[in-house]
Every structure is written in structure tokens, then in C-alpha cells.
Amino acid sequence: MCPVVLLALLLSLLLLLLEVVAALSVAFNPARVDKLKQGSFARVSFSAPPLEPRFFSVASDNPYVASVADLNFTETGSFVNGTFTVKANFLGHAKVRVVTNGTESTEFLPVSVVRKQSKLSLIFTVSVAVLVSLNYINMGCALDMEVVKDVLRRPIGPVVGFFSQYLAMPLVAYGMAQWLFEEAYLQLGLFTFGCSPGGGASNMWTVLLGGNLNLSIAMTFISTIASLGTMPLWLFTLGRSLFQEASLRIPFRNIFTTLISMTLPLGVGLALQRWRPKVADVCKRLLAPVSV
């Protein structure tokens, strides 16, 4: 082979390697933008090898969620330093990359957008929390502890509910997540939802539809306690196949909050039932209307 041709091939290979290295060495500061509120902005700086300005840009893979604007950069020595603004448009996740000569960098800036908390939504949340707490007091007034003890002595219903909720539901949620979504974070979200314990709404529906309130309360309490162990079990085993690089955090604080917010009002209702039976009778009559 002609030495000139060989030299040209080596130079071409070297230029290709330099281009790949350049694409692999983009650094963002901060390294990620988490929980950016909808409608707000975040300023991000970056550092990269020298890039051709005419073919240089920063782009988001999901502008509907987060868009990029106000790109400024300066070339100093062997690096290009720049800044740009990320705007949070809608709830979700996006990836921001540096694009040069039509090639995207392998490094990316993860962006997550969350809902902006307004005063109206805060008032609504507090109002619902107060109404739910009052209704749990009403449920405590209607609760028959002898029936609850019978349910726990012969726990056919709770056992069926436990296996349905913590064996069938996670597997069904995992299958649906694989079938319905391509994005890993959506798959993980649906799977986590399927692993979560039943909430207080099931007790409300039990009251409205004339179900067995004693059984419903017992199953809700048992499932909430059990979720302290079953949620980590599922998320750190099967959940890892959906999002291997994720840092999974179990919401133990939220689970304990749910448990306390249910147990304390029920205790107040049971106390009224024992020491203030007339007040408890009034609360029983208010149970269905408040549940609506």
C-alpha cells in the first residue's frame, strides 16, 4: 500500500476518534435539573471541546416538556464554555444534549418538570385532608370492634385481599407497563402504582355502596402495614429491570403519614363511641353524606 494512502487513512481515523472524544466530553453544571416547576426557568452552564459555531447547538429531545433558549458561548483555549436557559413547559421528563455537525453528544442533561403549587390547589388539598379526617372519625364511630376481631381471627378476606394486592396487582402492573409504555420512567411509575397499598378512597366507596366497613378498615390497615415490606421487595427486585440506573426511594414517610392519619381519627371515633354515644350516633348519620 502506498505510504501516502496509509498516512491519509491514519489521519482520517485520528480525526474520527477526536470527533468521538469531543462528543463524549461535554460536561453540564448542574449535572441535572430536578423538579423544575412548570412555567419556571433554570440557567445551565456547560463545557465542551472546541466546536464549529455554525453547526453548534443545544437541543431538547422533548420540547413539549422542556425547551432550550438563550444559548451563549465563548471559546477559551482548548474548551468552549457556554450557558443556556431551560424552560419548564409541561409535566414530564426531557433530555438536553449538545449537537455539533449533526451529531448528538452522548452526555445529556436530565430535566424533570413538576406541577407548580398554587394557593387554590393548596386550599383544595387542605380541605380534602380535613374532610377525610372527619370522615375517619365518623367511621370510627360506626366501627364494631367485635366484628373486626372476628375478621382477624378468621382472616379469609384479608388474606385474599393481601395476595390480590401484593402478588397479582404488581405482576399485572408490570405487564401493562411493558405493553403500554416505551419510556422507562413511565413503566416504573405504573409498576410503583401497582405495588402501592390501597388508600382511604376504598373505605369511602364501601360506605357509599353499603359494603362491609369493618372488613374494609381492617384490610386497609393490614395492607398499609404490609406495604412497608412489600414495596421495597418488588421495587428492588422486579423494578430494577425497568430502571436499572435509577436511585429508587421508598416513600416510608408517606406510608407512615397515611397510617397515622387513618389510625388517629379512627381512635377518636372509637373514643366517642365509648364515652359520648350520643355524639357517635350523630357522626354515624353523617358518614354517608360526608363520604359523598
TrEMBL record:
Signal peptide: 1-23
TM annotation in the entry: 120-138, 159-181, 215-238, 250-272
Predominant localisation class: membrane
GO MF term list: symporter activity
UniProt xrefs under InterPro entries: BilAc:Na_symport/Acr3, Bilac:Na_transpt, Na+/solute_symporter_sf
Keywords recorded for this protein, A-Z: Membrane, Signal, Symport, Transmembrane, Transmembrane helix, Transport
Compartmental location: Membrane
Recorded topology in the membrane: Multi-pass membrane protein
One GO CC term on file: membrane
Family assignment from sequence similarity: Belongs to the bile acid:sodium symporter (BASS) (TC 2.A.28) family.
Listed name of the protein: Putative ileal sodium/bile acid cotransporter-like protein
